Amino acid sequence: MKGRLIPLRPRFLYLGVWVGRVPVGLVCPLFFLEGLLLAVLWREKTRALVV
């Protein structure tokens, strides 16, 4: 008997972006977004400590 499959969290974010009049599908790995968020938070933290 097979065990139940555990749903995995998505690893990619699929975006539809309009370039001019042409829709373009972008696939963005979530670790890029997580890294961007961490960089923004780190920058805001250091800016708050310096001022």
Summarize the entry for a quick read:
The protein has 51 residues and is α+β, with helices and mostly antiparallel strands. Helices cover 41% and strands 31% of the residues.
Please characterize this protein's 3D structure.
The mean pLDDT is 83. The chain has 51 residues and is an alpha+beta fold. It starts with 11 loop residues before the first strand and ends with a helix. It is built from one helix and two strands. The chain has one domain (12-50). The protein has a two-stranded antiparallel sheet. 41% of the residues lie in helices and 31% in strands. The radius of gyration is 18 Å and the shape is flat.
Major beta sheet, strand line-up: 1-2
Question: What low-confidence regions span 5 or more consecutive residues with pLDDT below 50?
Answer: none
Share of residues in strands? 25-35%
Indicate how many domains the architecture comprises. Answer: 1
Distance between the termini: 62 Å
Task: Classify the helix fraction into a percent range.
Answer: 40-55%
Mean pLDDT: 83
**Element-by-element helix/strand order:** EEH
Please state the structural category: alpha+beta
Q: Which word captures the global form?
A: flat
Number of strands: 2
Radius of gyration: 18 Å
- The number of helical elements comes to 1
